[in-house]
Specification:
The chain is an alpha+beta fold and about 450 residues long. About 35% of the residues lie in helices and about 20% in strands. The longest helix is centred in the last third of the chain and has 40 residues, at about 410-450. It is elongated and about 90 Å long.
């Protein structure tokens, strides 16, 4: 059934106290109507869920929570919720009507937003988030589609459907990422329950980046790799894609979206203070970020041989390869060996240390056994890497070029050892891989709903 046909039971007088005039938006979960209050004559926007969506267990709960939490916030940069109820099985919310357009539409039309305009809008949003923090509310889904630019040029935050009280962990579904992947914080990717307003600041930084650069950080990546990079990497300097961006604006964006929330602004008010300085041309003192491991730059350090004698048969055989002996490499803790989706050119054998296997930002396995072979399947199949491997502790490996791998595995006893080792590793990681894949499927489904959802514009 077409979306436009799902709310055929709505009449002009369906919502008590209002007269519905016309539809102004529709999406995957419901429709938005323009209405006029019968007592004051003021315009309102009424969001009504489709009956099919109302049967989803969490949708009516989220709508009620949106009503309760949005009602706590009285601020000029927040679209006010005026009430709510139910019409023949379809829950609804009433909001003040704000003429304007969403930031996502403006970016789509303009390509990117000029720095001062974007900074002024981010200042409005930061002030709204400080007001929300003051009453214990975390939005959890700050993004361009949830920021309305009114006809007076002010930014207004809307859609508190994923919001929660700061002390309320009951609205987080175990193991489920709630939010929009391009803008969620690393702690949301990890499904941590103890979120605070710094989560919204990360999303504000990703939104500011999107506005001035034309796309959010990591936008070119697959969903799984995007989530992994959020957890293990800092966002890139926005000046790499927006050459005319000022250094101060870039520093604000990168501080808002630091991977470690303790290195972000402590509160939205602190972020607002720096945005005010940026707009007024005053000097700001943003401390340089603490040193973190650079997971991207350069190749692992290579050496001609391992630092000490080895006894494991796989290592001994690899080192005595008659045609092309492999080289030893070392990875410091935090260094990435390879990323998901990369072309698999080389395989590696663990000498010492420990590697974690990451998929969609989640650890699905650990590899620490001496002689363990990693990266071999993508080499043998000529396919891309299926997961990201990163050193948990200082790690040494032997690198085997892909062209030599088949000759190396031609020795029957070593091939048997490798097959046995691989089977053990898969037995440990397969269940967690299934969990990660299930989570990815859920995120993709949620994204489809979000992308098709209502934007009140």
């Amino acid at each position: 059934m077409a979306l436009a046909m799902r709310l055929t039971h709505i009449r002009p007088d369906s919502v008590p106290g209002y007269r519905i005039t016309h539809a102004i938006g529709k999406g995957a979960t419901g429709e938005v109507f323009h209405a006029v209050a019968e007592d004051t004559g003021r315009s309102a926007a009424i969001k009504i869920l489709y009956p099919e969506r109302a049967r989803d267990a969490d949708r009516p709960v989220r709508l009620r929570r949106e009503r309760e939490l949005a009602a706590r916030i009285d601020h000029p940069n927040v679209v006010r919720c005026l009430g709510g109820g139910e019409i023949e099985g379809s829950p609804y919310l009433v909001f003040e009507f704000v003429a304007g357009d969403t930031l996502s539409h403006l970016i789509r039309r303009a390509g990117r937003i000029e720095e001062r305009r974007a900074a002024a809008w981010m200042l409005d949003v930061a002030r709204a988030l400080e007001a929300a923090r003051g009453v214990g509310v975390i939005h959890r889904d700050i993004k361009p589609a949830n920021i309305l630019i009114d006809d007076g040029g002010a930014a207004r935050v809307m859609d508190f459907g994923l919001a929660r009280g700061q002390d309320d962990a009951t609205v987080t579904i175990q193991g489920t990422i709630l939010g929009t992947p391009s803008y969620v914080s690393p702690e949301q990717v990890r499904c941590e329950p103890d979120l605070d307003s710094r989560t919204d600041l990360y999303s504000l930084g990703a939104t500011f980046f999107h506005a001035v650069a034309g796309a959010p950080p990591f936008a070119e990546l697959s969903l799984s790799l995007l989530l992994t990079k959020k957890v293990i990497e800092e966002i890139p300097d926005p000046r790499t894609v927006c050459k005319d961006l000022s250094a101060d604006a870039a520093r604000i964006i990168m501080k808002l979206a630091r991977r470690d929330r303790d290195q972000r602004y402590a509160t939205p008010a602190e972020a607002a203070a720096d945005l005010e300085k940026l707009l007024s041309g005053r000097a700001m003192a943003i401390a340089a970020p603490q040193d973190t491991e650079d997971t991207m730059s350069g190749e692992p350090d290579a050496e001609p041989a391992p630092p000490a004698p080895v006894s494991h048969p796989v290592l001994v055989a690899a080192m005595s390869h008659p045609e092309a002996p492999p080289r030893s490499i070392k990875l410091p803790a935090g260094k990435v060996l390879f990323y998901e989706d990369e072309a698999g050119r080389d395989a590696y054998i663990v000498i010492s240390g420990q590697l974690e296997v990451l998929k969609a930002g989640r650890r699905i396995g650990l590899i620490s056994a001496e002689g363990a072979l990693v990266g071999e399947m993508s080499c043998l199949l000529g396919s891309r890497r299926t997961a990201t491997l990163r050193a948990v502790a200082a790690t040494r490996l032997l690198r085997i070029p892909g062209d030599d791998l088949k000759r190396f595995l031609g020795q029957a006893d070593l091939a048997h050892h490798v097959a046995t080792s691989l089977a053990r590793r898969l037995a440990v990681t397969s269940e967690r891989l299934k969990e990660a894949q299930t989570a990815l499927a859920s995120i993709r489904e949620q994204c489809a709903v979000i992308e098709g959802d209502v934007e009140m514009a």
